[in-house]
Structures are given as structure tokens and as C-alpha cells.
Task: structure prediction
Amino acid sequence: MKIVFFGCTKFSEELLTHLLKNKVDVKAIFSIPEYFNISYSKKKVKNSNFFDLKPIAQKSKIPFYEIDSVEGKKTKDYYDVIKNIKPDVILVLGWYYMVPKSIRLIPKYGAWGIHASLLPDYAGGAPLVWAIINGEKKTGVTLFRMESGVDDGDIISQTEFLIEDNDTIKEVYEKATKSSKKILNNVLTSDSEPEFIKQDKSKIKIYPQRSPEDGLIDWDWDSLRIKNFIRAQSKPYPGAFTIINNKKVIIYDAKIENL
Result:
């Protein structure tokens, strides 16, 4: 399969490196800068999980393009570039912009994303963070074909894993990455045509994106919710926080003591 790759995070880097090691035919890499424009913010936002993919593209002699939602750098502006590649699939792995329908229709099999949940559960933003905050005992990853809605396209493959009681976002993120590599291996190296299973869109619940300001701890919550809230936003994320004497205090870890 000829692949066009979209990504801009550490997750993207791990999967891209995995694909290249396994001789997957990546024809172009698209990325987003560390500080970028996005519709929900009047000023540029920081990608706290950013990874610069340009050196990988240069080393592998793969054309590299950068998108930033400004004139001349939007995804749609690269229509002809992508069309001339004639890709079988666009892989969207660690991304922040919607992929226009005109772009998704170019590849033979469409544009595929990996969402870090067992869709239709936890569609939308920050699914691993929300799963930990909500005290889930398991989650997973879903390879799906992108459509115009939020994470509502046909499912290609899924795999689940456990969230242990003391897992932080780092451990859960690592499990999601490992599971994603497994899914991509199974699907991209298969001799059979990919199968597409329709989602029940009535069951989709969309969770919002999160910003550092959403990490404020409410000390009226019960102890388990506070612990989950803290471990869901620990490093590499900005961390949960409280305000003491008008100063922001970031808390990366917590445990419940039985008195």
C-alpha cells in the first residue's frame, strides 16, 4: 500500500518509525508545528505532546509538508500534491485538524485514523485522559475510516487493554501505542482487502478537548476521583493543579491513605 502520513505527536513518531522499519511505503509526511492555530482559540495553542517529524522525513528522503490552518498551509491546499501520489490510504495518527472530505476521497481506501478508545465509546478529544478521570478499568484503540463527523466512521479493527489502578497517563499512552502498532501491522500487511464495519452513531458520545486550564482540582470531589483526575493529567501532560496563596501548584501524583 502507498501511504500518506499525517501526524505531529510522540504517538505519531512511534507509529511512523514502526511503519518505516516494517517497510511500509510512506510517500509523504504532513505535520503541524508545535505552536499552531486552531478554531477554538484566538491565539496559537501549544501541542504539549509535539514531536518534530521533519528529521525523520529528511533521513528517509520522504517529502515533508507543514499545515497550520492559515492561508496557503491548510490541508485542502495540498490536494494536488496528494492526488498526484495516488495513495491507497491516508493515515491520520496524532492530529488536530479535521481532514476535508475532498482529501479523504483521494485514496483508494480513504483516510484512516486511530482513536484511543473502543469506539463508539469516548469519541472526541483526550479519550485516554477522560477514561482515567472516569475510573474506567479498560479501554483500547480503534482503527477506523474517517468521515465528516467526529470519530464516527466505519471500524476496521479494535483491540482493548486494561487500565491498572495506579497507571498514569504515561503508562496508558504506552499501552495505546503498543496496541496501535499491532493493529497497523495486522491490517497493512494482510493480503486480504480491509473490511469496514458501520458504527451505531446513536451510541456515540463526544467528549470535549482539554486545555491546561481544565486541570483545576475540585477538593469537594471524593478521594478516588481526585486521584484519578491527577494521574490522568500527569507527565507528559501539564498536570492537575490547585491554587495555594494565589500561586498555582501542580500535582503529578497522589495516593489514597487509609486513616
Residues 212-251 form one domain. The CA atoms of residues 102 and 254 lie 47 Å apart. The first strand starts at residue 2 and ends at 6. The mean pLDDT is 93.
